[in-house]
Amino acid sequence: MCLKDNQLHPINLAAPLQIGNVSVRNRVVLAPMSGVTDMPFRQLAWRHGAGLVVTEMVASRELVNNTAESWSRLRAAGFRPHMVQLAGREAHWMALAAKIAADSGADIIDINMGCPAKKVIGGYSGSALMRDPDHALSLIEATVKAVDIPVTLKMRLGWDDNSINAPEIAKRAEDAGVKLITIHGRTRMQFYEGKADWDAIRAVRNAISVPLIANGDVDTQADAQEILRRSGADAVMIGRGCQGRPWHAGVLAGAAAPSPEKIPDIVVEHYEMMLDFYGEAMAIRHARKHLGWYLERFAPLLPVSQKAAIMTSHTRAEVVSRLRDALAAGVEISRSREAA
Ligand SMILES: Cc1cc2nc3c(=O)[nH]c(=O)nc-3n(C[C@H](O)[C@H](O)[C@H](O)COP(=O)(O)O)c2cc1C
C-alpha cells in the first residue's frame, strides 16, 4: 500500500515497503551512484541497515555485449533483494539487458531516467529520455514485457523548469506496469545546483498509486521526515549523504551509528573489501575517493602532507597503518573537543 494525502507523520522509516511481489525491509534506500555504490559499498550499507541498495547504473548495450565492467557492476552483493539499475536509449537493448539481469539473479530492475551526465545524455539516455516521453514509454514497456520481476523507474522532475513532466511520465509508466517511482527533486538543467524541490515531488504522488521514493539533499532523520511530509512519498533515498559513511542509510532507518572507536575498523575493512573486489592496482584508484571522504568527515584537521601520504601509499600495509593513525587521531580530537 502507498501513502497519499492522508499520510500520518512522522512516518515509521523502519516499516517494510512492498515493491510488486518484493518485500523491502525498511524505507531508507541507498541511491545508485556510479563510481561509488559498487559491491563493497553496498555490502557495508546493507550490513549497517539500509532498507534497499541499488547497483551503479549498468549500460544496457554494454551488458548485452558482455563487457567486463557491466558484469562487475551487475554482480549481486550476497543478499536480497538485488536491485539492478539499467540505462539505455533503445527499447531493444533495454529488453535484452533486463532479461540478462533477471536471469543472473536480479530481483528488481530499475530504469535510469535521471542521470544528467553529458556522456549518458549524449546517447539520449538518462534524463534526456524525459524530453521525449513517447520514446521513454516504448523503452519502459519493452523492459516490463521482457521480465517477470518488478520494474521501477528513477527520474528527475523534468528537463528544465519549463518542462516539468515527471507526473505525466510517472502515470504512463504506472499504466505500463512499473511498480515504483523514484523522483530526484531537481530538473536535469539544475544538475546538482540549488536545492532539491521536495514540494514539487507531490505532483507525482498525486498522479500515481504505486509507491513513491523521494530523493535529493537528504542528510538527517529530520530531513527524511520533512521530504516525506512535503512530497507525500512512501520512502526516502539518500546518495551523497552516505559518502564517507556507508552506514548512514541504516542509521536514518533506526540502526545505531557505529561508535567513534569502531570507525577506523570499518574504514579499513572497506578498503580491504575494495582490494579484494578490484584487485590491488585498480582498487587503489577506486579507494582514493572513499578514503578522501572518510578523512574529510573523521579527520578534518589532518595535515595535507599526511593526507597525501595516505593517498599515494602503494602498499596495503602502509595505507592501512597511516589510515588507522589518522582516523584514531581524528577521533581523539573530536572527543577532547566534546569534553571541553
Ligand atoms: C557520483 C554520483 C553518481 C551517480 N550515479 C547515478 C547512477 O548511476 N544512477 C542514478 O540513477 N543516479 C545516479 N546519481 C544520482 C543519485 O542517485 C541521486 O539521485 C542524487 O545524488 C541526489 O540524491 P542526494 O542528494 O541524496 O545525493 C549519482 C549521483 C552522484 C553524486
TrEMBL record:
List, from the UniProt record, the residues annotated as the active site of this protein.
115 (proton donor)
Task: Give the top-rank taxon of the lineage listed in the UniProt record for this protein.
Answer: Bacteria
Q: Which cofactor does it need?
A: FMN
**Reaction catalyzed:** a 5,6-dihydrouridine in tRNA + NADP(+) = a uridine in tRNA + NADPH + H(+); a 5,6-dihydrouridine in tRNA + NAD(+) = a uridine in tRNA + NADH + H(+)
Its Enzyme Commission number?
1.3.1.-
A Pfam family reported for this protein in Swiss-Prot or TrEMBL: Dus
For this UniProt entry, the molecular function terms from Gene Ontology, in alphabetical order, are: flavin adenine dinucleotide binding; tRNA binding; tRNA dihydrouridine synthase activity
Q: What is the protein's known function?
A: Catalyzes the synthesis of 5,6-dihydrouridine (D), a modified base found in the D-loop of most tRNAs, via the reduction of the C5-C6 double bond in target uridines.
- Per its record, how is this protein called by name? tRNA-dihydrouridine synthase
Q: What is the lineage of its organism?
A: Bacteria, Pseudomonadati, Pseudomonadota, Alphaproteobacteria, Hyphomicrobiales
